[in-house]
Amino acid sequence: MEQTFEATIEKRDKWYIGWVDAVPGAFSQGKTVKEVEENLKEAVQLILESHRELRDTGTSGENIPPVGYPVSQS
């Protein structure tokens, strides 16, 4: 089943940046809009694939720390 997601792409100086609000963590940058679109497509595919793998293995994610947050080890 193919899904479609809306992306936001903005020009910042000489770069374009983009993100997909519906898929947390799907961010990209590039020198062209096309590059950002391709990068975002790949990012969304990888994120959704990871979510499916976690679901299929029974890992709900409660023991996986969010990206960018410090992890304390006891």
> What general outline do the C-alpha atoms trace?
elongated
Helix content: 25-40%
Largest sheet: 3 strands, antiparallel
Protein structure class: alpha+beta
Number of helices: 1
Low-confidence stretches: none
Strand content: 15-25%
Please give the radius of gyration in angstroms.
15 Å
Write structural notes for this entry.
The longest helix has 25 residues. This protein has a domain of 50 residues. It is built from 1 helix and 3 strands; from the N terminus they run βββα. The protein is α+β, with helices and mostly antiparallel strands. The model has no long low-confidence stretch (mean pLDDT 85).
Question: What's the arrangement of secondary structure elements?
Answer:
Elements: E1 8-12, E2 15-19, E3 27-30, H1 33-57
Antiparallel strand pairs: 1-2, 2-3
Compose a concise summary of this entry.
34% of the residues lie in helices and 19% in strands.
